[in-house]
Write a structure and sequence with these properties.
The structure is a single chain. The strands form two sheets. Strands 3, 4, 5, 6, 7, 8, 9 and 10 form an eight-stranded mixed beta sheet that branches. β1 (35-38), α2 (48-58) and β2 (62-65) form a beta-alpha-beta unit. This protein is of the alpha/beta class. The protein has 13 helices and ten strands. Helix content is 46%, strand content 15%.
Length: 413
């Protein structure tokens, strides 16, 4: 290498070292000090500050409340990059770029009707009804669409809004955990209602068939007197759907791994904060039941104790190694046998050469040379047909053949 080339190489070394240092620093920052923006819906079922305190105390993840416009649904907030975390019902259709972390709790439909509600058309009691879906819930909107479609209404014949309007709202739909301590979603002048009301001609559908028409939704019951609210004097038939903690695909694997670990390891502390939300958290769920694939960070944590590929297939691998060893041994034995057989054949040619060279009878020199030519031709034909190997033994044969031929010629002269 010339001195100029060496000088250029020496200049590049500090640059490469700096690039490597920056790469390592960025990789470390991807984990340490990660801040996640979490979308909190209108009717808070827990104190975000308490959750924030547990997560930040037990991990390097930091929380802050996401600033999301009021009309944006939780899933759309993630897609539009308003937030990094949100709670989404498991009946929502898959959207690219969204990944699940954990099922958190079961959201139950709380349905209430305005006490003064009446319809101008007794045969079509829901015509021009005004539905308020709390928390911008996709499950609530899906439920309204399903009910109105089965009742024969088109979108323009009813209204769905994410804002409660005094004097205009006829029905309140709130999907959330059963929590008698928090009923802020219910407004004065409204009464909880059951889907199996005797006046509801389709009550059997909600008891048995809704899961087939709205995958993810299942019938459930709010026991009587769970709430000290009008309408809950008796058991209330309703529907429920699992609620997932979801995130954006772009959030780093290390951050979501740490968040998943903290949620599961600190379940007792989180349950003390909000038992109606976090008591059901566990890692014994089937990812195939979720409408979103697991985030790679959550999957890494949940599969941390799973056996590795080598551990899972150790017996099979051992068997393959054993069979391979037997096959290799058999092949080597066959090769050795074949070489030995070829060695035996070349020994025959040695013997024939010795017989010609040591022949003290009446055989003349010309006849002996002719015999040597025949032996040489026969040997090379055997070599071509791979009955002999071109190895050291064959080289010895050719040397012996040449020496014998020379001796016979000398004796003739």
């Amino acid at each position: 290498m010339t001195s100029a080339a060496q000088l250029r190489a020496n200049k590049q070394i500090p640059r490469l070292a700096a690039l490597l240092a920056v790469t390592l620093l960025l990789s470390a920052c991807d984990y340490a000090g990660s801040t996640l923006r979490m979308m909190i819906t209108d009717y808070r079922q827990f104190e975000p500050e308490a959750l924030q305190g547990v997560i930040e105390e037990q991990s390097s993840v930091r929380f802050e409340l996401a600033d999301v416009p009021q009309h944006i649904r939780p899933l759309d907030a993630l897609i539009a990059n308003y937030a990094d975390l949100a709670l989404v019902e498991n009946n929502v259709a898959f959207k690219p770029g969204i990944r699940a972390i954990l099922p958190v709790f079961e959201s139950v439909l709380h349905l209430a009707v305005r006490d003064t509600y009446s319809s101008n058309n007794p045969a079509r009691t829901l015509e021009n009804a005004d539905f308020y879906v709390a928390n911008r819930s996709s499950a609530g909107e899906t439920f309204v669409e399903l009910v109105m479609q089965r009742e024969g209404f088109k979108p323009g014949q009813y209204r769905v809004t994410s804002v409660f309007e005094e004097g205009e709202t006829d029905f309140i739909l709130y999907f959330g955990p059963i929590n008698p301590a928090n009923t802020s979603w219910l407004r004065p002048g409204f009464t909880m209602m059951s889907l199996d009301d005797q006046l509801n001609s389709r009550r059997k559908f909600y008891q048995e068939g809704i899961g087939y028409n709205a995958p993810g939704m299942n019938p459930t019951v709010i026991p009587a007197l769970t709430y000290e609210l009008p309408g809950n004097e008796e058991s209330i038939l309703t529907v429920a759907v699992d609620t997932l903690l979801v995130t954006r695909k772009q959030v780093s694997e290390a951050t979501i791994y740490e968040l998943t670990r903290t949620f599961l390891e600190q379940k007792q502390r989180l349950t003390a904060i909000a038992p109606h939300l976090f008591a059901g958290i566990n890692e014994s769920f089937d990812p195939l039941d979720l409408n979103f694939p697991l985030h790679r960070g959550a999957r890494s944590y949940l599969e941390r104790d799973d056996p590795s590929f080598l551990e899972r297939y150790a017996e099979t691998i051992n068997m393959l190694v054993y069979v391979s060893f037997l096959m290799i041994s058999a092949f080597l034995a066959f090769a050795r046998w074949r070489e030995h057989k070829k060695k035996d054949r070349v020994d025959v040619f040695y013997q024939r050469l010795f017989e010609i060279r040591d022949d003290m009878g009446d055989t003349g020199a010309e006849q002996k040379l002719a015999l040597l030519d025949n032996i040489e031709r026969e040997a090379f034909e055997s070599l071509i047909s791979e009955k002999l190997s071109a190895n050291e033994s064959f080289r010895i044969f050719t040397d012996l053949l040449a020496r014998t031929r020379e001796e016979i010629r000398n004796s003739r002269d």
